[in-house]
Design goal:
With 461 residues, this protein is mainly alpha-helical. It has 17 helices and no strands.
Length: 461
């Protein structure tokens, strides 16, 4: 088992922690603005309101899906842009543009109708395509190996907290000040974050003007680099033949299949089969995402603890927590499919457990892209997110093909067993074929150096 390099950690909070908090807020706001339309559109089309839109169900469906039209398109280019220009530039564009579009939504919808709304949602999707690639690039630059489980979990879990609080807050905002308030609050907070991040954010410790020499050295030593990082052309040929990378992509696809099946189909299942209308209760709707957020922290902390104590290698630690994140929901889904009719609390409990323990994926396949090739982590994430989000679009369509009668529990069990099987098989592939060993093509000029190749194989074993 490899030994982590002796490295003195500066006491107290540092600039890396400030960057972590800012990036957590970025994820929180990005996901809030991603899902706000699903809540707002209910009030926007409510004929009991003084101002409402007479949009058909098909138009509403187009509005809700239009975000992903743009989101899928720029995933791979987003990875390349993050590598070339740095994560700060892209995440600022993503949150800033989304904030401006949210602020313009109420007036634009009145003037331009559903066509304007769809155009805004496509643009929001296009710019949010930069979120994960830029985050991966920033994590690879800022987060030391010994703290990667905890700090990266704080960042990525911000998305789930954003979803949960948006589900809770939207109802209150719409009731108090109208549906317009949902967009104004999201947009206003996003604009404030953008100004603060432009002032305090940095693409790396080397470009930060606030970091101490001690903290910079600690990060550089932990990540095995000195000075300004060189930029290399992305070795797509070697990536294509890298089995550990594709094992992580497969796990990502399995995660998205299960997660989006739950997110899109669960309200209908709860209403039609279990007679529980979660859409009318924002708090109940948010519980699974709150559970995922809360559980992500002990899992992230345990990841770092296990690696520091060298109880497991980095590779096996990633496999352990990814198994918790995918095989746990696989089992819970089967239990959910047999929940007795009308037992609301048991059904909500099973759904909360299913989504909550899915938090294991934050320290599983997501970090493999950084482990394999820190210099190309944004590109790897862009490729994976592109493929996995195509799966996200396909999964609900397959559910619609399987389910002919929404009130038939037997047809729903087919959907849940399919998702459970995909969770199981994709994680099995991940366990068998992935690794956290840094790949030789991460630093192209070192490819032919036998000593460097041996060191890379020994590190992170």
């Amino acid at each position: 088992m490899g030994v982590i390099t002796e490295n003195i950690r500066p006491k107290g909070l540092g600039v890396r922690h400030a960057q972590t908090f800012l990036l957590f807020l970025a994820m929180f706001l990005a996901f809030s603005m991603r899902v706000n339309m699903s809540m707002a559109i209910v009030d926007m089309t409510n004929s009991d309101n003084d101002e409402y839109f007479e949009w058909s169900y098909s138009v509403q469906s187009m509005i809700l899906s239009s975000f992903f039209w743009g989101y899928v398109v720029l995933q791979i280019p987003g990875g390349e842009l993050a590598k070339r220009f740095g994560g700060k530039f892209l995440i600022t564009i993503s949150v800033g543009v989304n904030a401006l579009l949210s602020l313009s939504m109420p007036i634009g919808a009145k003037i331009g109708g559903w066509q304007f709304v769809i155009a805004c949602r496509v643009l929001q999707g296009l710019t949010q395509a930069f979120v994960y690639p830029s985050m991966h690039h920033l994590v690879s630059q800022w987060i030391p190996m010994e703290e990667k489980g905890t700090l990266s979990t704080i960042i990525y879990a911000g998305g789930q907290l954003g979803i949960a609080l948006q589900l809770i807050a939207s109802g209150f905002l719409a009731t108090a000040w109208g549906w317009q308030a949902i967009f104004y609050v999201n947009g206003g907070l996003g604009a404030i974050w953008t100004v603060i991040y432009l002032w305090l954010g940095a693409s790396s410790p080397e470009t930060s003007k606030m970091i101490s020499p001690e903290e910079r050295q600690y990060i550089q030593t932990s990540l095995g680099r000195k000075g300004q990082q060189r930029k290399y052309p992305t070795p797509y040929g070697k990536i294509f033949f890298c089995l550990p990378f594709w094992a992580a992509v497969i796990a990502h696809c399995g995660q998205n299949w299960g997660f989006f099946t739950l997110m899109t189909e669960m309200p209908t299942y709860m209403k039609e089969v279990l007679n529980v209308n979660l859409t009318k209760n924002g708090l109940l709707s948010s519980l699974p995402y709150l559970a995922m957020y809360v559980l992500s922290f002990p899992m992230g902390t345990m990841t770092d603890f296990i690696i520091r104590r060298q109880w497991l290698s980095v590779t096996n630690t990633r496999k352990l927590f990814n198994s918790i994140g995918l095989w746990g929901p696989a089992l819970a889904l089967i239990g959910l499919s047999y929940s007795p009719e009308g037992n609301m609390w048991l059904a909500v409990l099973m759904l909360t457990v299913t989504v909550g323990i899915n938090a294991g994926q934050y320290t599983g396949y997501l970090l493999i892209f950084i482990d394999l090739a820190p210099n190309f982590s944004s590109s790897l994430m862009g490729i994976s997110n592109f493929i996995a989000n195509i799966v996200s679009i396909i999964a609900p369509m397959v559910c619609g093909f399987i389910i002919k009668d929404e009130t038939d529990p037997g047809e729903w069990r087919k959907v849940f067993f399919l998702a459970s099987g995909i969770y199981f098989l994709t994680n099995l592939f991940f366990i068998l074929f992935t690794t956290s060993t840094e790949q030789s093509w991460n630093k192209p000029e070192d490819d032919t150096d036998p000593e460097n190749i041996t060191q890379r194989k020994e590190s992170l074993k």
